[in-house]
Every structure is written in C-alpha cells, then in structure tokens.
Specification:
Layout lengths: L9 H9 L21 H18 L5 H12 L15 H22 L17
Helix pairs in contact: 2-4
C-alpha cells in the first residue's frame, strides 16, 4: 500500500480516484491511498473542483472506472470527512456541498437511467 503525497496535483488526484482499471473482482485495482486529514482545506478544494466540473474533468475516464471511483470516494476512502468537520471554513465546505447538485445534474443525470435498481423495476430497462 502506497501513500500518495499530501500535495498531489489535482489531475493526479483524479487519476488516483478514477484512473485505475476495474479488476475481475469488480473493484478498482489499486491500494494507493491519500490522507485527506493531512490537509483538509486541500481535500475540500479538490472535492469542490471535482463536483463543479465533473462532466468535463471526468470525460476521459470510462463509466466503469467512474462508478468504482465514486464508490471508493463516497465509501471507504473517507475523503468526504473534511466536508463535515470544522477544520475548514464553513463557506468553503458549503460551496462543495452545494456543488454536489451540479455533479448530479451535469454528470449523473445525462448517463444514468431512471431504472430503480434496488427494486429491479422502473420506467426504463437497466443498462449494464
């Protein structure tokens, strides 16, 4: 397991999250990690930049890698924690939280079906 430097450039941070192929297990094939607690302000800045510009920033990654990258980002990584802690000014955290709406509007809505996967039912058939 390799720890990435705290001051990793933004594009390298995107590659860390979304640039790894999805392996046979269905998960990302990487054990690298980045410590968001070392510089919470940078973590919030990167999250804000990602959420506000995801459609353009992530166009170079295939959908399966986006899926696994977001699964990792929102789950086991812990990278969202600085959004909920007071180490970073509220206005910066608020901007990132509001930008989640932009992420959904600009990236997820155009490519996701209206299929309710948890119920295996919906107005559209699921796509792989």
């Amino acid at each position: 397991m390799a720890q990435l430097p705290t001051e990793i450039p933004f594009d390298a941070w995107l590659d860390y999250l979304f640039g790894h192929p999805v392996g046979p297990s269905g998960f990302r094939e990487s054990d690298d990690w980045w410590d968001e607690t070392a510089d919470p302000a940078r973590a919030v800045e990167y999250l804000t930049h990602l959420f506000e510009g995801a459609a353009t920033l992530l166009a170079r990654y295939p959908h399966d890698q986006l899926d696994r990258g977001f699964w990792y980002l929102l789950g086991e990584s812990g990278h969202l924690q600085p959004l909920f802690q007071g180490a970073v000014a509220w206005e910066a955290r608020r901007r990132a939280l509001v930008a989640i709406g932009t992420l959904f509007e600009d990236l997820f809505a155009p490519v996701c079906t209206r299929h309710l996967g948890h119920r295996d039912a919906g107005p559209e058939p699921p796509t792989p």
